[in-house]
Amino acid sequence: MRFLLDREQRAFAASLDAMLRAAETPAVIRDWSRGAHASGRALWGRIAKAGVFALAVPEAYGGLGRRPADLAVAFVELGRHAVPGPLAETVMAAILLTEPTPAEDALPALLSGEAMATAAPEGSYALDGDAATLRLTWSPEGLSLAPGHGPVHASLDPARRLTRLTPGGDLLTTAPPLPLALTWARLATAAQALGVGHTLLDRTVAYVKQRTQFGTPVGSFQAVKHRLANAALALEFAHPLLLGAALTLTPADVAAAKVTACEAAYTTARTALQLHGAIGYTAEYDLSLWLTKARALLTAWGTPHECRTAVIANGPWHPTATTAPR
Question: Taking a C-beta distance cutoff of 8 angstroms, is the pair 74, 49 a contact?
Answer without folding.
Answer: no
